[in-house]
Structures are given as C-alpha cells and as structure tokens.
Write a structure and sequence with these properties.
Blueprint (H helix, E strand, L loop, with lengths): L5 H10 L3 H12 L5 E2 H8 L3 H13 L3 E4 L2 E4 L4 H16 L1 H11 L3 H7 L11
Antiparallel strand pairs: 1-3, 2-3
Helix pairs in contact: 1-5, 5-6
C-alpha cells in the first residue's frame, strides 16, 4: 500500500502512466504563464514529439492544459485541479522514488490496458 495521500494517488491513477509524462506536465506547470510549443517541450525533455503530442493532447482533453494552435499552456479548467497538481509536484520533489513506484506498480500504457480488455480468457482463469 502506498503512503501517498489519497488525493495524490487518485490524480496519478487517473492521469499519469509514466514518470516522464508526469515530468512533462510539471515542466509546463512550473512556467504556467508560458505558451509552450511542442518542439520546445521536446527539446527540454529530450522526448520525441510523436510521444509528446498525444500526452499533451490528453492533458488538454482532461482539462489540465489548454492548446492554442501549436502551443500548450498549463491552465487547469478547475481551480481545485491546480491545487492537486501543486500537491503532486511537491510530493514528487520530495519523494520521487515513492511517486515513481506508485506510477509503475499499478499502471501501464493505456493502449496495452485497452488491448488487454479484449483478451480471450478461459472461464475461471486468472490470466
């Protein structure tokens, strides 16, 4: 069982499937007034734009970022979500390993989870 707060756990479980994805969100949060071009996020994180684009668009659809043309800005749709992300950022700075363990202990890429939903299983099997 994780010793992270229930709020942090819920946020991670709902919105994050990798530490890299969390770091991208926190990068944009740390300079919230800035509109970040995808290419700049890619340069700052050393991650390919082909991975970042879907992550950022996912954050937009979840109300964590806004998109203006080819740029993204941290702008949670709900004020409470800004507080939650601030708490997550604080915990991640202090307890990076604990947060990372939580992320990787219970999650995998959403496409893999989706594909697993269609796996055929024998009745009564646990796999």
């Amino acid at each position: 069982m994780s010793d992270l707060s229930p709020v942090v756990q819920a946020f991670l479980d709902e919105h994050i499937f990798s530490a890299s994805q969390l770091e991208v969100l926190l990068l944009l949060r740390d300079d919230a007034g800035r509109a970040w071009p995808l290419a700049e996020v890619s340069r700052r994180t050393a991650l390919p734009q082909s991975s970042l684009g879907p992550w950022l668009d996912s954050f937009v659809s979840r109300g964590l970022l806004t998109r203006e043309g080819d740029t993204y800005r941290f702008a949670p749709a709900e004020p409470r979500m800004e507080e939650v992300v601030a708490e997550v950022a604080d915990v991640y700075k202090r307890r990076r390993t604990t947060v990372s363990r939580h992320i990787y202990a219970r999650t995998q890429d959403p496409l893999v989870r989706f594909a697993d939903a269609f796996r055929l299983r024998r009745p009564g099997s646990k796999d």
